[in-house]
Write a structure and sequence with these properties.
- The radius of gyration is 30 Å and the shape is elongated.
- The protein is mainly alpha-helical.
- Strands 2, 3, 5, 6, 7 and 8 form a 6-stranded mixed beta sheet that branches.
- β7 and β8 form a beta hairpin.
- Helices cover 65% and strands 6% of the residues.
């Protein structure tokens, strides 16, 4: 008993940290699904990858092919492919996220403690960062890039001064995994390695007590650099190939005011609920206050010690890297035509590196405990808001559950997204494709060229997504492609959301109903199935059939038939002729009103 109490006393920080990791991860198990913007596409493409790499079924290979380029974004796709052999796609997705929620804090603590002056409670600063905005957008590869970025830092800091062949090979593997997780993470790791080696060189010739001569340290640092270069060479070449093989696209820069607002409002912590605004802003100001306080403390210590060297410490490398990320945040575009939310990514890495610096500082105990306590309390409110949002998104995704049972295996499905109130549901159709053996013609990842799977033809995608706003020209183009899809019959049209108050939406649905019949609807989710009888008719034959159907509806209405009999007698024509005239008039009138 005494031994147990002693262990708890000596390791209370780490035990509380582990308990908080468990609590923080429980958000994944509050709902059946954990929907994200891109999550469905990841699950769908993992299924396609398995078929293309290991299956003999030509179903997917008629539409998709493996990307021969060694692009990033491979890691979680491959992991999802493996996990899908053991569990359902939704369980596989939760497993990937669970590994992230556990690994991020543990790796953060590992890195922070490498250069720490003491065991600090400020390692708890990592927890709001685990819920950063892009995670809820489904950027899983980017999230795993953070993990390998931290792993790479930890490994290099531990072994840089004792680099044997085995260690160099392991670090080479870490660099490759970082690249294949996400290119941004690999670039961030390169920045850290460069800054760390420069800081190490300066420290050895100027800051350390056992200083070396410039010439002596230059040889040591050069030898370390020569060992480091082969470790990063292959992913660096892959990165150069990635950039040089893509044409230049237009870039979008945010105004300084917008960038300042992005920081001060804590946008990196917010995902989709305005209720997050206060807690997100609190996290920003907490980080900022702690950074300013830590900097003043360093300055005060240096003045008291009457030496510039006393101002610097080993873990300041994180501070300098954080400043570089902040500079890039203000100078790089928010979109380069291939990737978006670039500013958010730089902001996130700025905070991660700043948090590593803070977690390694020796701050006043009272300040440290007050900051940690306020952060923990705020986290409870913050995560509860996230839970409510996830529950709502889960209820939206669950609307699709019955639809899967109505779609035949081996079908082609064209999706339409009009649910502007849930822009995170734009790719919900991909969740359907992850559950059944179908082709969904809205696989956006296959259109980008920087994921493992690509379309065989750029003409294969067929969909409507809002946002961006859909207009009548988009609807006309969609219906034309739907009628003349060159890669097989589109068997189903899946519609999520409706805009009956907009004329072009009603025209679109009317056009779809000419060739498809509604087989399922619930609230604002609709599934239309291709009607073979109508789909094989020429426009003239289809019009004749529509007229026949309209005549049948008229004949079922006794009041209408009385009026027709009266008009037929007045105009001296047969009743059947008058029924046909009314049917044609009604159809043409509806068509003109829709125009």
């Amino acid at each position: 008993m005494q031994r147990s109490l002693s262990y708890v006393k000596n390791n209370h920080r780490d035990l509380l940290f582990l308990l908080f990791i468990i609590w923080n991860s429980l958000i994944l198990f509050q709902t059946n699904y954990f929907p994200t913007l891109d999550g469905g596409a990841h699950a769908y493409n993992a299924k396609i990858m398995a078929s293309l790499l290991f299956g003999n079924d030509p179903f997917y290979s008629n539409f998709y092919q493996m990307n021969p380029e060694p692009v990033p974004n491979w890691l979680t796709s491959g992991l999802s492919m493996v996990l899908n052999t053991l569990m359902s796609p939704s369980a596989s997705e939760k497993t990937i996220l669970l590994l992230y929620f556990i690994s991020f804090p543990l790796l953060f603590r590992l890195v922070a403690d490498r250069l720490s002056e003491k065991k600090s409670y400020l390692i708890f600063l990592v927890f709001p960062l685990t819920h950063y905005a892009l995670l809820y957008y489904g950027f899983f590869n980017f999230s795993y890039g953070i993990l390998f970025f931290l792993l790479g830092i930890s490994y290099w800091l531990k072994h840089a001064e004792n680099l044997k062949l085995k260690m160099l090979l392991l670090f080479t593997l870490i660099c490759l995994l970082t690249y294949f997780s996400h290119l941004f993470a690999f670039m961030a790791l390169l920045i850290f390695l460069a800054v760390n080696e420069l800081y190490f060189f300066i420290g050895c010739i100027w800051l350390n007590e056992d200083r070396k001569s410039f010439k002596e340290q230059f040889k040591i640092s050069l030898f370390r650099a020569l060992k480091l270069l082969p470790c990063v060479l292959v992913p660096l070449l892959f990165s150069l190939l990635y950039f040089t093989s893509r044409p230049e696209l237009s870039t979008v820069f945010l105004e300084p005011a917008a960038l300042n607002k992005l920081l001060t409002e804590g946008s990196i912590f917010k995902s989709f609920n305005t209720s997050e605004n206060y807690t997100a802003a609190f996290f920003f100001y907490l980080f900022t206050i702690l950074v300013v306080y830590a900097f003043i403390t360093k300055l005060k210590t240096a003045i008291e010690n009457k030496g510039v060297r006393g101002f610097f410490s080993k873990n300041d490398v994180f501070f300098f890297c954080s400043l570089i990320m902040l500079w890039l945040f203000y100078t790089r575009p928010d979109s380069d035509g291939y990737g978006a939310f670039i500013s958010l990514r730089f902001a996130l890495y700025t905070f991660i590196l700043a948090a590593l610096w803070l977690a390694g500082r020796s701050l006043d105990k009272v300040v440290e405990l007050l900051a940690t306590a306020s952060l923990v309390v705020c986290m409870f409110f913050f995560v509860n808001i996230k839970k409510e949002s996830v529950r709502w998104l889960n209820s939206e995704l669950k609307k699709l559950d019955p639809i899967a049972g109505h779609i035949r295996e081996g079908s082609i499905v064209a999706p339409l997204h009009f649910a502007e109130y849930n822009w995170l549901g734009a790719h919900y159709s991909n969740y359907l494709a992850a559950r059944k053996k179908i082709i969904v013609t809205e696989n956006f990842e296959a259109s980008t060229g920087y994921f493992p799977v690509t379309w065989k033809s750029h003409e294969m995608p067929l969909y409507l997504l809002s946002p961006p706003p859909i207009d009548e020209y988009d609807c006309v183009a969609f219906t034309e492609e739907l009628k003349n899809y060159s890669f097989g019959h589109v068997d189903y049209v899946f519609v999520y959301g409706e805009k009956t108050n907009v004329a072009y939406y009603n025209v679109l649905i009317k056009e779809i109903k000419q060739y498809y019949k509604l087989i399922y609807s619930f609230e604002n989710v609709f599934l239309y199935e291709r009607d073979p009888e109508r789909s094989n008719l020429t426009p003239e034959q289809l019009r004749a059939k529509v007229i026949k159907d309209a005549e049948a509806e008229i004949r079922k209405n006794p009041e209408w038939m009385k009026q027709i009999e009266k008009k037929a007698k007045e105009q001296g024509v047969a009743v059947d002729e008058m029924v046909t005239r009314d049917a044609v008039y009604m159809i043409d009138l509806e068509k003109n009103e829709q125009k």
